Amino acid sequence: MEEDKHSLKERKVITIGIVSELTGLTVRQIRYYEERKLIFPERSNQGSRKFSFSDVETLMEIANKIEEGVQTHEIRREMAKKKKGVTEKEVRNRMLKGQIRAQFGDPKM
């Protein structure tokens, strides 16, 4: 069930106009953040941008940081570090599970 919630949050189904209404950002601001590689909407067959609820949350975080005076390149760097940190944590967890399996057999994890 948790996986279903996560996948629904990640589904790219929201148009840029709705995202603008939800976030209070202008369409131009949203496009600018895409140009600066801070968000990555998908494109429909007609070329329309489609966003997820996660994208909306990210845009709100970006808007708050911009308001605080943080530059877009600093936000992008911070986002990359955050993403990399999650990846490193996942690798560390897999390594630990592998070591436990090697030491104690194959416990159900």
- The proportion of residues in beta strands is 5-15%
Net shape: elongated
CATH fold title: Multidrug-efflux Transporter Regulator, Chain: A, Domain 2
DSSP summary: helix tally = 5
Percent range of helical residues: 55-70%
Number of DSSP E strands? 3
**Widest beta sheet: strand line-up:** 1-3-2
Number of domains: 1
CA-based gyration radius? 18 Å
Kindly provide the name of the CATH class. Mainly Alpha
User: Would you identify the CATH architecture?
Assistant: Orthogonal Bundle
Content-based structural category: mainly alpha
Main pleated sheet: 3 strands, antiparallel
| Overall pLDDT | 87
Report the oligomer: single chain
Measured between the Cα atoms of the first and last residue, the distance is 18 Å
Q: What this model shows, in words?
A:
This protein has one domain (2-104): Multidrug-efflux Transporter Regulator, Chain: A, Domain 2, CATH 1.10.1660. Helix content is 68%, strand content 6%. The chain has 5 helices and 3 strands. The chain has helices at 2-10, 16-23, 27-35, 53-67, 72-104, and strands at residues 14-15, 42-43, 49-51. The longest helix has 33 residues, at 72-104. The protein is elongated. The mean pLDDT is 87.
